[in-house]
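Chains adopt folds. We examine one example:
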Amino acid sequence: MLAADEELANKIVEMAKRRGATVFQTVNLILEQALRAEEMGISLREVVDKRWMLERARGLGLVFAPERLLYEMVDLAYNRARKRASKIWFEVGRWYGEYFSDKEEPLKAVEEALELLTFGNSYYSLRDEGDEVSLSIVGDRFTEGYTEALSLFIEGVFKALGYEADSREVSRGAIHYRFGRVGDD
């Protein structure tokens, strides 16, 4: 016998109906998956959160690629056609910035995208300080070209959100910005 909160129990009954299953089958399926996740060393919450990240990435038009391949191909393109590659990365950043600007909380939308863009072996920090925003991204595997291209993408995003870079430090594997609102002194 299992006990559950009445609201949760009602939701499980509804889920079972939608799936054409019994409550017994539905509860067993849920418990089986929770135990399976636990055996893999992760919680069911982590599984759901990671799945959400994949769905969010797909919704943003992001694709997954082998990390080394991505960095080195961007580096190659950037070194061979720097001016054109710079323009593309900046313009795509502006497009995403326009997309984020339509959100209720644009900087939160940017932060969610950064979580996806830095998934794996990189790190970001975004701090909203009112009329200023500070952003740092560090990736020890980033190539020089990828780091520069990503920084231009970030500049495009923030330009579309009404910010200009007050300070910019970009070197292989490290991006640091301080953005201020356009028109604010």
Observations:
- The chain has two domains: 7-41, 66-181.
- Helices lie at 6-19, 23-39, 44-59, 67-80, 82-101, 106-117, 144-160.
- Residues 66-181 form one domain.
- The longest helix spans residues 82-101.
